Amino acid sequence: MSAPKLLSRVRLDWPLLGKELLEQSARRQMYIVRVVYGFVLFGAFCFYYARHVAEGPVLALGGGSGPFHFLVGAQIATIYLFLPPLMAGALAQEKERDTLGLLFLTDLTPWELVLQKYFGRLIPMLTLLFLSLPLLAVTYSLGGVSSGSLLYSAFTLFLTCLWVGALALECSAHEATTFQALLRCWGFCLAFATCCSVGSTPFLPILFLTTGPPGVNGLFFVPLVGTAVIYLAPTLFFLARARHVLETRAFVQRRNPFGHQFKKLDQYWKDLRKLLRALSRRRDGEAIALAEQVIRKELGVTGDSRPWSLGEFLLMRMQVPNLLAWGIILGMIVLIILATSVFLDPKSGGGFGFVIGALWIVVLLTVPIQSANAVASERMSERIGPILTTPLTAREILDEWLAPVRRWSQFLARPLFVVFAIEAVIKLYTSEASSERWANPALYIVVSVLTVLVYFALARWICFWIGLRIRNQIRALMTALLLVVAWCVIPLVASGYLVQTGLLPPGWEQPLRYVSPISVIDTAEAIGRSGDRATNVAMIELAFINLGIAAILLLAIRQRCLTNTDRYLGRI
Asked: I need a labelling partner for 559 at 20 to 30 A (CA). Which of 6, 350, 387, 424 fits?
């Protein structure tokens, strides 16, 4: 068979790949992301170079190993952070739009559909990695980096893109929504990063990427072949898995087990309030009637004239939601651990900081996502149009959308308040200075409660405003989450770096650190500990300034959302 006839039988035209690339090239956000990433990468490299390498033209020779490791680590973080959101919507968005069935009607085979979606989302990610090539050339010119390590790292970064992209595509084919696919992919990536952390090594693949084949000064095929086998095996597995579940889970229904449990828990508290109201108001006929409705609903009977008991009903007949049951079990375990540690060493704080930190991490990861998704989910399900035709005002619509977020915030605030109360009692009885015995617990309660009231509401309204402005669901969720993470982390990292490099004047480190809410929360936990009194007073003043600015910003964002909701939603 001649070569032209053989090539004519090979299908080289991939229309879906061209459609994906054309759509992405027409989006302004793609260029904004590339420009912002380029500025961040080059800026971070310049700061790192000024801090560690730029000590003189002679001393800089042979110092390219440090910047090289920094660049490779940044590229690894870029792949694990940005490739899953880019790839998670490849097939899940088709399910959300009900267009995946239309793709099945074309003459595309499942393998062609999977591969075209895969390469269509992989190519933009590779363009981000290419931005680091000039910086890698700078590190190589400084010396200390062999050509084998450079080529080996570039090859392994490319293979990392392949397998992370294949994992994200499999999650997109398996889940019903883009958000679920993104969470599943990030969960696998986090588990992989955790399993690869060994001792003092933060992330084991970085060690392999930055060192390269030991003792190699040039390109050796044996290490590259071994690395290719290690990375291509999961890539092929995830692609085959995506092709397998593409048809079997093409029309899978959306489900949210956590949301279902939360609705059961919410209904449980409503029924419990009805029962308590009937007990406290014996002569209120309406309260008694509502309580009887709850009992009949739970018992499955139409009438029961026997007297009922709240304790018997809750413990023997009423089904407790699984979320509440697990919360009670976990709470009891935590309280036992805290009580034991306090009994052993009353002045240590009993590990309350760890518990409060864990609860705040849950808050900062769930409240922004729920707030941004309150509007984005309505847009995805195309329910905004019918809602806007109703006579509901903008304030009523916002209250309805934010009601689940407020209930979730209240659910998370309760254990925080309990821990605050217990720690305040411990601070009261372990205080060394009699003059500050009552002042420290009172100040601790005030600062801690204000952090919950202000930061919860601020995160809720800012992320809700982001959901109003950004129409794409996954982009709104990512923007809200990254904004909150940057607000918490960047001031802490920037303050230490700017002080060490001499770019920040003396005395400005603490104010910059207190832009982050983490510093305010840590200040509340530090109240009552031994230390310089003047320093503690300054930290408390900065904490109150942060809370005051956050409260003003909260009121401004809330007022902006209430006054401009109709314009954001397109009603006017």
From this structure: 387
Q: Catalogue the E-assigned strands of 253-311.
A: none
DSSP bridge pairs for 201: 198
Of 144, 128, 116, nearest to 75 by C-alpha is: 128
Q: Cα–Cα distance between 512 and 492 in angstroms, integer?
A: 8
Listed residue (481, 462, 361) closest to 412, CA to CA: 361
Closest C-alpha to 119, from 33, 23, 17? 17
Give CA 533 to chain center in angstroms: 37
Residue 273, SS3? Answer: helix
pLDDT at 345 over 60: no
Paired tokens of 476: 């709104």
Query: Does the structure show a pLDDT above 90 at 552?
Result: yes
Task: Map tokens 């697990």 to a residue.
Answer: 326
DSSP string, 3-69: HHHHHHHS----HHHHHHHHHHHT-HHHHHHHHHHHHHHHHHHHHHIIIII-S-TTTTTT--HHHHH
| Buried/exposed 221-241: b ≥16 CB within 10 Å, e otherwise | eebbeebbeebeebbeebbeb
DSSP category for residue 199? T
pTM of the model: 0.71
What letter represents residue 200's amino acid?
S
CA gap 126, 144 in Å, rounded: 26
Maximum mean pLDDT: which of 48-62, 173-187, 406-420, 539-553: 539-553
